[in-house]
Structures are given as C-alpha cells and as structure tokens.
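Handout, page 2. Input:
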Amino acid sequence: MNTGGFDVVELRRRALLGQLQTAEVNLRAGLHQHGMDAGVRAHLERALAHIREAYIAVNEQTRVRPVQELADQLTRVEQMQAELRAQQALADPSSPSIHV
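Output:
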C-alpha cells in the first residue's frame, strides 16, 4: 500500500475512534438522567459495553470477543448483580418486612 493510502486508512480509523468516543460520552450522559426506566438503563449499559469493545478493537487493532460472547458475559454479570441485591435485601434489617 502506498503512503497516501495508509494515511487515508489512518485518518478513517482516527475518525471512527472519535465517533466511538462521542457515542460513549453521550451514552454516559444518558445513564445519569433521573427517572429512567430500568429497561432503558439496561439497554444503555449494554450499548456502552459494546461501544467500549469496538473502541478497543479499532484502537488496538486486535481481535476482541465476539458479540454473542460479550452479550453472554454481560447477562451473567447482570444475574450476579441481581443475586447480590437479593442477598443484601435479605440481610438488611432496615428493609421493610411483611411481619411488621
């Protein structure tokens, strides 16, 4: 590849990295909005994880996890968080009880 072709590819790569950074900033801003539905928040968090993975792939020019593997791992993390919240709710003596 000639030097001019390399420069064009590098410029496109950098432009894409900038777009991914912009998307991440906007998704993070959306996560901080009050009164957001839990389902919307979950989608935004997943989108943010996918954006980060894409940024790594483009920036480091390396192979990353397949989308399905990332989605499976995110699902498992969400399940673990739900289990932890349930355990904490059971262990918290200040939580409302039906026996009050």
